[in-house]
Every structure is written in C-alpha cells, then in structure tokens.
Amino acid sequence: RDSDRLVNNAPALPRFREMADSRREEFQKYLEKSGVIDTLTKVLVNLYECPDKPQNAINFIKESMGPAQGEPVEKLLARVKEQDAKIAEKDKEIEELKKKLAALTTEAQKKAE
Fold it and tell me: How far, in Å, CA of 100 to CA of 64, rounded?
C-alpha cells in the first residue's frame, strides 16, 4: 500500500532535506566567493534608487553590469582596432580616387572644348 511505503520511507526524507540544504549552502558560498551576490545587490539597489524606473528592467540590469570581462572583450577590441585601420586605408583610397576622377573630368572637359 502507498501509506505503508510513505511510513517506511519517512527516515529518508530528513536525509534528502539535509542534502538539499547542504547543496544550497555550497552554492550560496560559491556565489558569495565569486562576487555574484555583491554585484547583483549593487545593481538591484541602483534600480531601486532610480527615480524614473526604466521600462525594461532586464536591459537596465545588463547595462549596469557592463560587458563580460576577459579574453573575448580583448579579442573584440583588437578586431575593432583592425577594422579602424582598414577603414582609414579605404578612406585614403577613396580620396585618391576622387582626385583622379576630378583630374580625368577636367581633362575630358578640356578635350571637349
């Protein structure tokens, strides 16, 4: 019967709760040690103290926490620097081509006269 099984398994219930409590405590220690709790607390306090509440609280939290730190950000910064150099090179090339076009246009106009 189901009631017999519940009575026979009753001693297992406290052990399960102890295991769950232990895992929860370990996880909480991990969050505290890694600074997650402090960071989230600061962000939520900022949101609470914000006089004009943002329409999208999730975006506010994301923006408040800032970009992820570490290698990916460094790679992105390097890529931006590389792209800026390419853009500067293309801008220079465009200016040179504009000068050539202006010279050819002037030359063509003189021949047409």
Answer: 50
Three-state SS annotation for 16-58: HHHHHHHHHHHHHHHHHHCCHHHHHHHHHHHHHHCCCCCCCHH
Top-confidence residue, 48 or 7: 48
- Distance from C-alpha of 73 to C-alpha of 39, rounded to nearest angstrom: 19
Query: In the structure encoding, which two tokens stand for residue 23, read together?
Result: 């895992």
> So what's the pLDDT on residue 45?
93
Residue 62 to residue 46: CA distance in whole angstroms: 12
pTM over 0.85: no
User: Which pLDDT value is given to residue 70?
Assistant: 63
The Cα–Cα gap between 90 and 83 comes to 10
Residue type, 81: K
What angle do helix axes 36-49 and 12-33 make, rounded to 10 degrees? Answer: 70
Q: Give every CB contact of residue 28 below 8 A, 6+ residues apart in sequence.
A: 37
H or E segment and range at residue 103: helix 71-112
